[in-house]
Design a protein that fits this description.
- This protein has 74 residues and is an alpha+beta fold.
- It has one domain.
- The chain is 55% helix and 34% strand.
- It has a two-stranded antiparallel ribbon with strand order 1-2.
- The longest helix has 22 residues.
- It starts with a helix and ends with a helix.
Length: 74
């Protein structure tokens, strides 16, 4: 498999995932209280939004690379 086609497949998969999930969610833990043996923490879920345009561009770019890779092969 050519590297152009491989990059195209990766872009198609990442673009589809970006369109499906539309963001990355992660958990941040902060200390609230730390007095001797008593510890209290707070978990906060944060989100990094990914615009659908980014996923669409990655998808279109991946398809274009797959087509270009198929043309080189033929």
């Amino acid at each position: 498999m050519k590297s152009l086609s491989l990059v195209g497949i990766v872009l198609v998969v990442l673009g589809a995932l970006a369109l499906a999930y539309q963001g990355i969610t992660y958990t941040r833990r902060e200390k609230i209280l730390d007095v001797g043996p008593i510890h209290a923490t707070k978990d906060t879920q944060e989100r990094i939004p990914l615009p659908p345009v980014l996923g669409g561009l990655a998808l279109i770019g991946g398809v274009a690379l797959l087509v270009a890779g198929a043309r080189q092969k033929a």
